[in-house]
Amino acid sequence: MTFEELKARDHQYVMQTYGRFDVAIDHGEGSTLYGLEGQEYTDFASGIGVASLGYGHPAWVKAVTEQASKLAHTSNLFYTEPYVNLAEKLCTRTGMASVFFANGGGEANEGIIKLARKYSYDKYGMGRSTIITLHNSFHGRTITTLQATGQDVFHQYFFPFTEGFRYAEANDLESVKAQAGDDVCAVFLELIQGEGGVLPMDQQFVQDLAAYCAENDYLLLVDEVQTGVGRTGSLFCFQQYGILPDACTFAKGIAGGLPMAGVICNEKCRNVLSPGTHATTFGGNPIAANAACTVLDVLDDDMMQTINEKGAYLRESIAAFDSEYVDCVRGMGLMVGIVLKDGVDRSTLVKKCYEQNLLVLTAGPKTIRLLPPLVITKEEMDKGLAVLKNVLA
């Protein structure tokens, strides 16, 4: 099939909810993707942070194929070994207590919202269900997570939205306190606002917020859909902030390319979601769970150090470009934001990257976002950096 034929069939049969670039991907190897006609793309996007081990990783392929030939799905009415192994690995490496498995980030964030409200209901009864989130946040595309998202641009079309959210300024504890009250059950935040522009939270703010939540018995909830699973140089980003949240969500890179997500909580919250209060048909799917176990095995402590070194190399290299377009470079690990100066036409720069066979992402109003596979090599990084240097020159 030619690209034009593929594109025509997409437009005929698929809801046009995405503004796709003129790129069609056929297969991948390592951190390189290949088009239908043999085009070679350096991947600084990894499926929006999903392909954590890149493409065709031997251990990942083995885990998926062996489990697929053994058991693809049963249901959560029965026990299976892969999801139990995965839950143990997650809890052991984070200090958390228990896990609920889901399929995508929006679903995981729905689950953590339900957990917070039920925790409060069980302990305090009705009337304590409001959740404080931050301006410029992004938590998903469901009706509830759209309202949890602290950006007005998402609060349209789909009325009525779920009630029970108020918004505070990031890195401003007094703003959080101003939104607090007897009706609040939790504070929910991203430690790096990914879709908002790759904006890391201030360490002192996060630690003070954790203490404030503990004093008031507000659950501290962390959205690690994009920042988790090694992306920022530790298994979860909260581990670099010196806190243990009451619960956090994960998704994207956990299964290396298969749909998987979840909520992981501490001891205080481990029994909040009891039988019948929350469920999902495909959560903990054996193939996805076995793949995720392999992802976590690859992402050991040595790998985390490598991720931090790669991220520093990318940020320092880009910051050294002689570019009139770049305002600053920020991020953690292999989550990098190139912030452009006011008035720069970002869409043209991104289009030029694609034309020169480099796949990148955007975030916020003026940021080019880089989320390469965590296994990317220096050679692959240098190929991408050469394109970025040329485009940003």
* Radius of gyration, whole Å: 21 Å
Strand order of the largest sheet: 4-12-11-10-7-5-6
What structural category arises from helix and sheet content?
alpha/beta
**End-to-end CA span:** 37 Å
Overall mean pLDDT: 98
Q: What is the helix tally? A: 12
Describe the main β-sheet briefly: 7 strands, mixed
Write a brief caption for the model.
With 393 residues, the protein is of the alpha/beta class. Helices cover 37% and strands 19% of the residues.
Structure in words:
- The protein is 37% helix and 19% strand.
- The chain has 393 residues and is an alpha/beta fold.
- The protein has helices at 3-13, 46-49, 58-70, 81-94, 105-124, 143-148, 173-179, 203-216, 286-298, 301-319, 346-355, 378-392; strands spanning 25-29, 32-35, 40-43, 98-102, 130-134, 165-168, 184-189, 192-193, 199-200, 219-224, 247-250, 261-265, 326-332, 335-340, 358-359, 361-363, 367-370.
- A hairpin with a 4-residue loop joins strand 2 (32-35) and strand 3.
- Helix 3 runs antiparallel to helix 9 (286-298), helix 4 runs parallel beside helix 9 and helix 10 (301-319) packs parallel to helix 12.
- The longest helix is centred in the N-terminal third of the chain and has 20 residues, at 105-124.
- The chain has twelve helices and 17 strands.
- Strands 4-12-11-10-7-5-6 form a seven-stranded mixed sheet, with helices on both faces.
